[in-house]
Amino acid sequence: MLHPLRRLRDFASRVPRSRFEVLCRAFFGQFFSSETVTSDEQLQRAMAGVLAFLITPALLSPIQMAASFEFAALRFPTMLEPMTRQMATVYITYSMVGVGVIAAVMWDTLSFDRRDAMVLGPLPLPASTVISAKITALAIFLLIVAFAVNVITAVPFSMVAGNHQAAVGVVRHFVAHMVATMSASVFVFCLLVTLRAIVGGLSGRHVAFASLLRFLLFSALLCFIVFLPMALQVEPGGRRRQASVQMMTIPGWSPTNWFLGLHEWIRGSPGAAWDAGARRAIAFTVTVTASAVLTTIAGYRRQLQIALAPSATDAVRRAARLPRAIARLATGRSRLARAVSDFILSTIARNSTQQATIAVNAAIGLTLIVASLLRSRGDLTQLLRPRTAVLWIPLVLIYWIAIGLRAAFFVPSELPAAWMFRCNAPLQTPAYWSATRASAIGFLLPLALFADALIGPLIGVRAAAWHAMIVVPVVVLLAETIALTVDFVPFTRPYEPGHAKLKTRWPFYLFGLFAFAIWPARAAMYAGGRPADIVAIAEWLWAVAVVLEIAGRLRGRTWRMDPAEEYKDESAIAVLNIGIVLPNEIRP
Amino acid sequence: MLAVRRLTKHYGALVAIHDVSFEARPGEVLGLLGPNGSGKSTTVKILTGLLRQTTGTVQLDGADAFADLEAYKRIIGYVPEEPYLYSYLTGPEYLRLVGRLRELPERALNDKIDRFLQLLGIYDDRHQTLSSYSKGMRQKILIAASVLHNPRIVVLDEPFSGLDVSAARVLKGFVRAIAAEGKIVIFSSHVLEVVEQVCSRVVILKDGRIVGHDSVANLRATLRLPSLDAVFASLVAEEKIEERTNGLLAAMKA
Fold this sequence. Notes:
The complex is a heterodimer of chains A (588) and B (254).
Chain A: H1 4-14, H2 19-30, H3 40-75, H4 80-105, H5 114-120, H6 127-161, H7 167-202, H8 206-231, E1 232-235, E2 244-247, H9 255-267, H10 272-308, H11 315-318, H12 321-331, H13 335-350, H14 352-373, H15 388-391, H16 393-409, H17 419-424, H18 431-454, H19 456-459, H20 461-484, H21 502-527, H22 531-556, E3 574-576, E4 580-582
Antiparallel strand pairs in A: 1-2, 3-4
Helix pairs in contact in A: 2-6, 3-4, 3-6, 4-6, 4-7, 4-8, 4-9, 5-10, 6-7, 6-10, 7-9, 7-10, 8-14, 9-10, 12-13, 12-18, 13-18, 14-16, 16-18, 16-20, 16-21, 18-20, 18-22, 20-21, 20-22, 21-22
Chain B: E1 2-11, E2 14-24, E3 29-33, H1 40-47, E4 55-60, E5 63-64, H2 69-74, E6 76-79, H3 91-101, H4 106-119, H5 135-147, E7 153-157, H6 165-180, E8 184-188, H7 192-198, E9 201-206, E10 209-215, H8 216-223, H9 228-235, H10 241-253
């Protein structure tokens, strides 16, 4: 006898599906598919990791707060309301950042693209069916994600904060929390959907825009996780020490305050400010949701136009000009190395997958910088002189960007096209090593100098210029190290799952942070702006770079292109799951 | 002369080609024919050095061609069946990358690229990325990339796929002209009319084995058939064509 669930599934599979439903399922499936990873299992594992990373701090923090709320209820009952609002603001921020990060990861699927238009355009489907299916899929995805992210904080927090109220109070708290956080999630998600549709339709730079957005949102998420414990600190005190409650100040202009207004309005807190905030939250959420729907409709029509009549643009030619010029200098006379470095830099400049890898790692660097800067506890005058927390800004940022760059080298780009290298390029040449090193220098150096220039207003332009004397050799050292740890033309090999081995190799990454950021910054600190000492440090760094260069040149001789394509290529075709297989040649 | 001797390739338990031997001479276009799964692409990929054979040899002028694979690849030009390209590069960028990887002189390379783009009618699209090129335009880029370095051996796998009629006519003449220059041209295709027009000799494969190997005229004369299409049908085409056609029609109407 069949299991009831199975019977239900069998019955459901026999029910004819409408075109709307088929499309909706296909669009929904796009959120959980990727052309970079080679298996669904691998993708699901990666998604589970991201969800665990997102959910853990939110799940633990209300439990962590329980003792503080109990203490406040006993000793400072008047503090309970401000503390509740403080934590509600934190969870509203978490909701916005968490859903924002997920939307940024799913950026490419948030709106129609050219491929959708090319596949669906010729089918006898009304535009209204296609658009409503896409909007429905987006709405279902948003509701699932927002509910999952917010219910985790809503249940424990309403129990912790409502512990001293009647059951009705707890329920009301839960409802207020869910409505406020879900509205905040909808607001951010719809804002990103609107941006995606506008950027995808108007700009030729949507890949770079997406990477910048991912960088900012991942930074925001990491900063949130780092600062979560600092949001509310209750110290019980003792015989000689007074009890204290410290709360992080939330700026009044922050959109989180609108949703806090909504939260308080539902909870029934008196005050005109809450009512105004609630009205603003509702108005903005409705407006942004409407704009997301309208831009999605416009996006489909625009993508149909683009698919039918691609416009000539020379925007692609302008991409990565400066890095390419620097890389050309670094490759010397080898035209082969120049060709490969051009290829590497063009690939990074024009592919969101590679950029996303770099953006996520850069976000770690930015978070470390923000965390170290905030140790000054608001005393910005401390930052107006050279100190390690300031001098390491360009170094730590560029270190994490370099980590991301190296990781991006392992992510293939258009793998089936790699036959071109096997067929046209020499099998073994040090030019591949030279190109990888040169492209790393070309990519990292402008960013490092830009980050160094940013600390100019803090420590003075002259000091920043002298600091560049240290930053430049560190960049070269990083590039040499990257080139030593890669032994193939980047992007031309299949991705090996788990190659980063973070569980076992994290001490190397930590050591790298010291070697490339903390120790050079401290050395610069000890140099104290004395040119002779800075030059001496730079000389040492260049000496190490020369040693790595020699090692790299020796190793470069063994770099070898796989002569044959013996691996099974699984990414040869792109499938939009509506029963149509789209040959690769018409993939956008 | 390029001589293939008793070439066999296994993919695990699957035998893709078995005991395949033929020769391709300078000045002639050798056609490789066969239905899907007959082993044409495997043979082509082995000839270009992209796949390793399980047994057998490929000899160039009497010596093992793969003894110095790099030197062999330097003299070969290849148009693959599937137009896999780095779609985020523009046409000239792709050709420049190929030319530089083959270490062609920079100035000559740029001149060559411009001339190819103009002659192939895609010069106006030079600023677009390959993702926005049509299949035919991509095919033109692949053909240009394959002959950019003036190779001694040209291996073409369905080179005219997606090309418009006039471009296909031009390129048919181009293929014959390349052969007339004394180069070895191997031409793999399903389009029998084109093969008949372009190739001097043909090798017909079925299930990984050679079932016919001669000039088109000799094959026609031997089998007393009027065209290459008829020769091909008699050697490799499956029986019951009418039955299958009717089956397809019935399936369509169901």
